[in-house]
Amino acid sequence: MTLLQNLTPLITNLNALAGGLFLVASFGIVATRQVGDCLRYFIFQSICLAASAVLMGIQPYSPHLLAVGAINLITKVGLLPWLLRKLVREEVYTRREITQAVSIPSSLIIALMLTLAAYWLSRPWLNAAAAGGALLINLPIGLAGLLIGAYTLTTRREAVPQLLGILAMENSAFFAGVAVAPNLPLIAELALAFDILILTFVMGVLTRTVHEKIGTTAVGRLTQIKETASPHIEAAAARPSGRK
Amino acid sequence: MILTAIIVIPLAAAALCAIIRRSPAGAIITLVGALAALALSAWADHCVITSPHHVLIEISHWIELDSLGAIILSLVAFVNVTAAIFSLGYMDFKQSGSGLRYYLNYNLFVFSMLIVPMLQEPNIVWIAVELTTLFSVLLVGFENSHEALEAAWKYIVLTLMGAAIALLGFLLLFWAARQAGAVQPYTWSGLVAAAPKMSPVLLKAAFIFILVGLGAKVGLVPMHTWLPDAHSQAPTPVCALLSGVETTAVLYAILRVLTILQASPVTHAGSWVLVFGLISAGTAAFLLLNVRDTKRLFAFSTVEHMGIILTAVGLGGMSAHLAAILQIVGHAVTKSFCFYSAGTVLLLLGTRDIASIRGLIRRAPIAGTALLLGGFAIAGAPPFTLFLSEFSILKAGLGRGEYLAVGLLAIFISIAFFAILNHVSRMVFGASEATKPSEMKCRSLPTSCKITLVIAAVPVIVLGIFISNPLHKLIVLAAISMRG
Predict the structure, then answer these.
(1) 276-295 in B: which are within 8 Å (CB) of A?
(2) In chain A, where are the structural domains located?
(3) Mind listing the pLDDT tens digit for each residue in A52-103?
(4) What is the chain A residue with the closest CA to B346?
(5) Residue range(s) defining the domain that contains residue B166
(6) How many domains does chain B have?
(7) A135, B88, B398, B405 — which has fewest CB within 10 A?
(8) Could you tell me which of B188, B323, B186, B321 has the C-alpha nearest to residue B256?
(9) What is the ipTM of this complex?
(10) What is the pLDDT of residues A112-163, one digit of tens each?
């Protein structure tokens, strides 16, 4: 095992690299205008997550984490984009979001501040657990990704980027999870992966229905329900459905 | 065997709905499944009460049922039956060709709610909670109108955002347990036993993430914005399930985590819950004053009741816990009845607009009586259960010297009481603008809706006067288990 022990610093550094790239992908999901690029950033983020799990699975050797990495790779890099492209038509991905709620430079500054906040917030936890190694990288970056994902949901208006925002949030929780809870029961990991696929399916179906019935996927602009509106079901049924 | 059967029944019903592909058959299968699940859950309750440790073990450390879980399970099973009966007439009335899709989703949704109180591994409970959102969202958007789809989108985005935050919380909880030496088994009860050794800093962090994350799904202010939309746009039987028991099932998970914290060295966990609860109850009480939609009226009332329950739990102590559990039972039973009555009005008059519903007692006596009964019961008028539980919460709070919290809660409950009864009395007794007999006319009511109203009214009326011995025993056991 001496060879593997010599590899430890290398693996720590590689994991730090994966963490850095993971964070870059989170920034990318906030800041890209084009929906297709958003999806590519998400896939890239998932690869970083899988890489981190695999690296931690090599040293100390843990077949469990290797399996987690493999599960993530199969579901999020393989099945999920395929499912999404099947459910939501191609035209949506080439769409560019011109008017985000906040301009892109300001978004990036906010994301940067959220990252700093994540480091500041997680420090007492790391101190309390006397943590070292991968935890110092994975926990703050995971928390930062979670906060940036939540911010993405408030600023993006298209349906697919909002879905990707949610998936990025779950990715971030998992990114912290591979360090924080490396020995989660495998049945939970499998159920979580399955859950992600159901999530993508349901939101994909909903996006498609919204597209068909309302004629837009800019869900951030749906503001039909108001406290003052007088709800009449006949009126709702009679409204012409703007098919494209 | 019993718990496995309860899990398998809705899954089998969903599978049969998908295979048979006939809407009427789907309705019958769903109803039979619901009745079977209710009978089995009553049997499970009996087993829980009579077993020596008050736990019904199916698969040790994975699927077990204790007293608190048994209460939630029975509530879900009961509302499932009434919702299934109401669905019969509702789907028929709507003459919707997509009944199959409805029943398929309906059974999956019920499945996800039934497993929440049985599962013992917290991470798997999180998955079950997320499944309740995923399986119900297509039901919320079922009408496919602009409003319904908008509500469904808001619902899924906000609750899944909360779920992701809660996921980090659950992982931190796992970390805290690992730091304290491996917690074996990693279950709710195992965690409570290991809690004194866990790091307070990590536990606190985990709890805040879980409270905020799952709080979004329970409808705690300020993450409540999706709730009135989703709970008003969904088909009526789904509204009853969402508002009556889905919120309760998620609240149950928060209560479990709170129990762990109260067994640990962490102080003030109760106070955070108390503050969250008071903010929700207060905001909802004021929003109730000027709602314009019958279903939104009852949806905001759900936010208020979730706030009251959390306030009670935050006060702490045996008597407050007892009252909180009574409130959970009363709310689930009464709120589902309220939605059935609002749904009946919607079926008859074709509107949810409070301003245009007047003189119901003359135009539609059944709907009018039901709305009046529901309004009084949910507002917490005597002699209904919620009066009893709210009164006990205030009394328990005074007993613990929490005068400010009790004062605020009493004010909020009074405002909500006034608001709900004001709206309801105007709808039921208000002078109708329609003078011509033709405008006074209503559509006729499907028989199944009448049956639902009668069945759902029974516990609303009875529980306020008489609580049967087994139920009383379960409530006491659950309150004891919440002490940690």
Answers:
(1) 290-293
(2) 2-238
(3) 999 988 877 888 899 999 999 999 999 999 999 888 887 777 777 766 678 8
(4) A233
(5) 2-481
(6) 1
(7) B398
(8) B188
(9) 0.91
(10) 999 999 999 999 999 988 877 888 999 999 999 999 999 999 888 888 999 9
